[in-house]
Design brief:
By secondary structure, the chain is an all-alpha fold. The protein has six helices and no strands. The radius of gyration is 17 Å and the shape is globular. The termini are far apart.
């Protein structure tokens, strides 16, 4: 009984934290919204079904969450937005006084993420 209660608290906490990060991402440039909402719906499905249902039924974000769950698909518009944001970030890092390993490492990671993203279906 205690294990089940603890499990629910942990799943709900994860869902709430990622939901809040997703909401912050709406207003903070560079902080993604959708990945956090995907995690919130996933965690909600394990410990907070009402939150999961609310996210899936949300008029703006619900279709994207369902598209990801059903097909692991990312719309082309989202791919372009993410790619352009990563390119802008790469330019800002290059012009900064960041150490050379950071100037090389961060863009390399973003390149890997962009490659992975563009390999996702768009359906």
């Amino acid at each position: 009984m205690l294990r089940r209660a603890l499990s629910l608290v942990l799943w709900r906490s994860l869902a709430l934290v990622t939901l809040l990060l997703g909401l912050i991402g709406i207003f903070v440039p560079g902080l993604p919204t959708v990945p956090f909402l995907l995690v919130a719906a996933w965690a909600g499905g394990r410990g907070w079904p009402r939150l999961e249902r609310w996210l899936l039924d949300h008029p703006k974000h619900g279709p994207g969450i369902r598209r990801w769950r059903d097909h692991r698909a990312v719309p082309r518009r989202a791919k372009w937005a993410a790619t352009l944001t990563m390119l802008l970030s790469t330019g800002l890092i290059a012009m900064s006084s960041a150490p050379l390993p950071l100037k090389i490492g961060v863009p390399a990671i973003m390149f890997a993420v962009a490659t992975w993203l563009w390999l996702r279906p768009e359906r």
